[in-house]
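Hi Q.,

Before the meeting this afternoon, I wanted you to have the adenosine-5'-triphosphate prediction in hand. No need to reply - just skim if you have a minute. The sequence and ligand are here:
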Amino acid sequence: MHLDDVWLRYRRGGSWVLRQVTAELSAGEIAVVLGRNGAGKSTLLQLIAGVLRPSRGRVAGRPAAVGWVPERFPADQPHTVSAYLHAMAAVRGLRAAAAGRAVDGWIERLGLGGFRDVKLPELSKGTAQKVGLAQALLVSPGLLILDEPWEGLDAATRELVPAIVLEVAAAGGRVLVSDHRGETVRLPGAARWTVADGGLAVAPAEADQHCVVEVAVSAADLPGAVARLREQGHRVLRVREEVGS
Ligand SMILES: Nc1ncnc2c1ncn2[C@@H]1O[C@H](COP(=O)(O)OP(=O)(O)OP(=O)(O)O)[C@@H](O)[C@H]1O
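Predicted structure with the ligand bound:
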């Protein structure tokens, strides 16, 4: 997917918010969008999501399944959490049984079980954000766009966001995440897109950066698992017994 010389202004004759933006996002790639308040991060994400159209230039190769989580989930709709998510699943083309599985799965994973029958306007900001996250993930997205996803979320869900992002990327989805609070230290290995003065500067993920992944393997398979990881070029740093397992 790529942006070819994209320009955007909100009004004819108004000032340009984005100018001459060219960028590419490949399958399985994660990019963090950085920039000061008002720099144009949300505008860029909405262009890529297809919510806004460029004034000039084009966004090409957008995948069919786009999951967009706006900065503020529009919770002023008179539906319950469950009814809303089932309606969104239907909009995304899921049949009843698949819709039920997807809705139940995300309700459970995001800790929304106690809010199934609560109407959206009665939710706290953080809980509404979780519903926003759930609707974007009902169908495995080819492009997932998260606008300030850590804003207002409880600690448990903040921890979950990087795991979800990595799962979407591992399944071949592209992911864009905006962040003005530096939370993206939680996404090592992502490219950095910085919006400033209407332009976009792209810094690819650092090739020599390494991450530590904790993996639990069965004790019986330990020598084999360590050997396989080494064969794949990973450095095995330490082996320890899982206490209480
Ligand atoms: N609907 C709109 N109509 C007119 N101007 C807008 C609109 N939305 C945003 N702008 C202007 O475009 C510029 C970029 O805004 P944008 O929301 O994209 O920035 P941002 O980097 O996401 O900021 P923040 O970190 O505060 O969310 C700002 O000057 C903003 O006032």
